[in-house]
Amino acid sequence: MNEEKFTGKADLYERFRPDYPDKLIDFLYEKAYCEKVADIGAGTGKFTRCLLKKPWSVIAVEPNADMRGILEQIGGITVMNAPAESTGLADNSVGLVTAAQAFHWFDEDKFKTECCRILIKGGKAAVIFNERNYEDCEISKERDSVCMKFCGTFHTGHIGKRTSEQGDLFLRNEYFSNLEYFCCENNIEADCGGFVGDTLSRSYALKKGDKDYESFVEELKQAFSKHSHNGKVTVKYKAKCYLGTF
Questions:
Q1: Checking CA distances to 53, which of 23, 160, 208, 234 falls within 20 to 30 Å?
Q2: If 0-12 CB within 10 Å is exposed, 13-18 middle and 19+ buried, where does residue 232 land?
Q3: pTM given for the model
């Protein structure tokens, strides 16, 4: 796992990244009911908090110290400092593994091996994404243009490994067996601070002190102003979940 990608961005991530819809959590609870869940690459706990809406015992695994500092403030969970590929969890100890907005940072083969080790017989793993929906969403298209101009490591899809379409085929046809798929709209209403903050929370985004940071932020604000109505923009997302066995 790329453990330092979000160092210095934890506060932005926690404040401005989109949450996950209750419908997705209901889907997981219905399809993978169990006693214990391990949320891997948990970050600041955006998805971990959602898991607490159900009567699961939740373990959150996160190797980045900045992210984990916020994660550890959540009550009612066990937090572990470990990478996705070597969690330190006991063999056959959890019924569900989740990876929300994190799978693309993992070594996929090693993560699969680790899941097979820690899952109970019949246990399942879920790969979850809040994925931008560009259909009729000009603000996201313009945001990407700004990022392409300023951010040398800018990427879409699965961080440059695959396009979103290729990633979908990989998860459906290669990675999992007995796959169940869930998708729903997860559109976000954002003010200027939220729109800019979400972009700054991304791994590829410039940080304060970087060359062109001020120009980068200014062009994001200009994009917001162009597309906003009553001080808000609608950023379209789809919440996607790939739930399967190995």
A1: 234
A2: middle
A3: 0.94
